[in-house]
Amino acid sequence: MLSIRTFSSLAFATLCLITGPAASRAADTTVSPLTLSVSRAVGADAVVLNGTSRASGPLEATLYATFSRDLPTVVLSRQNLAVGADGTFGATIPTAPAFFRDAIVTVIVRSLHDNVSATAHLSVAAPNVDTPADANPH
Question: Do residues 106 and 90 touch, judged by C-beta distance below 8 A?
Answer without folding.
Answer: no
